[in-house]
Amino acid sequence: DAPDYVRMDTLAAPLVDERGKVVRYVFLKVSLEIGDAEKLAQIEASKPRLHDAFLRALSQGSLSLPGRPGSVDLEAVKARLMARAAQELGAGVVIRVLVTSAQESAG
Length: 107
Prior knowledge:
The chain is α+β, with helices and mostly antiparallel strands. The protein has 2 helices and 6 strands, in the order E-E-E-H-E-E-H-E. The chain has helices at residues 40-58, 74-89; strands at 4-7, 11-16, 22-34, 64-65, 68-72, 94-106. Helix 1 (40-58) packs across helix 2. The longest helix has 19 residues, at 40-58. The termini are far apart.
């Protein structure tokens, strides 16, 4: 069976320097790989709540690569979103977070 995916709305998050100053923003397009096709309707219905939870997760702490405050750490972003998806939907519902696009803009 081919995996099922849920595409989330674009997420916007600040990239901050060591002093907490916003140096730029990153706009992320994210898809969730779902382990059980029977959960798709539940996830689609939960998208607004999940989007809000993802935005809150992305605003907690730096998303920048260590020592490179203007560059996004995509692995850390995926791990943070994966953890939040498990909190919101239950463990094992989302089996992978895919960042399909990451565009940065000046802060």
